[in-house]
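re the bet — no i am not wrong, look at it urself. input seq straight from the record:
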Amino acid sequence: MIVVTGGAGFIGSAIVWALNLRGYNEILIVDLLDKSKKWENLACLKFSDSIDKDEFIEKLYQGKFCDKIDAVIHMGAESSTTVYETDYLMKNNYEYTKKLAMWCIKNDKRFVYASSAATYGNGDEGFCDEHLQLEKLRPLNPYADSKHLFDLWAYRQGLLEKIAGLKFFNCFGPNEYHKESMKSMVLQAFEQIKKNGKVKLFKSFNTQYKDGEQLRDFIYVKDAADMTLFIFENKKVNGIFNIGTGKAQSFNELVNSVFGAMGKDSNIAYIDMLESIKDKYQYFTQADMGKLKDAGYIKKTHTLKEAVYDYVKNYLLKDNSYLKINNISFS
């Protein structure tokens, strides 16, 4: 049995979908049983059972799962960059991940976990996923710090030779409908266009970038899930890996692709950036993908336009159609 924590969430449910397409159905979903609509992500997928995250960790350490679990893919976390309750983030993101990692190592189980590209901070130290760079990174918010602290702990304990951590860049795609303020810019743009016929983007306060020309490494969730399972299935591939495209593109390009997919002319309004984020805003992110390629991953990712068109035409314009395993290929 494969455990997927955060399995009802955005990336977690996409990984369950990708597992199903590869023939894995014995999956235990671990997540927070809250009132959000994220459980709809699982309606068309196959899994054996689900359990609350706190109940799971308790039973795990009581020895009730040892003979059943083969691997843990740990995607569960508080992922909002606007949450500043440090104690909560440390318990939920850092301590919980430590408990899972130590159990897996002790019991010789595969452990793959989600780190985050947010750990790179303002990017001054680049976006290289080599372990020696970890000590130099300075995250910009408590969420990123909680992720970075686990990376550092695993590195200092010498565990990155036994487990795999994934630094996801700007991920978008189906099954993110429940994410409210943390929805991708693709989904936000789609909703704004439907409602008002235009999209609002932040003005640039960096003279090196024009308005809307701030750059991000945008990756389609289907590609992110595929990379995750490549690492998961190759047990000798361990350490920290970037999950991105290796190509930074502008918000203007992203939004123009959404307009194009919807068959509409572009209409972008540039607004002042919130004072609360001006000093912590990233103007450029771009994953260094050399390490993953060296590990043997050679597939091409969707281009930004291809990914946006697939998302908009095959999901968003079909009234939030979720990822399904029937009649949909992994393309």
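see?? Residues 6 and 75 are 5 Å apart (CA to CA). told u. also The longest strand covers residues 27-31. so pay up
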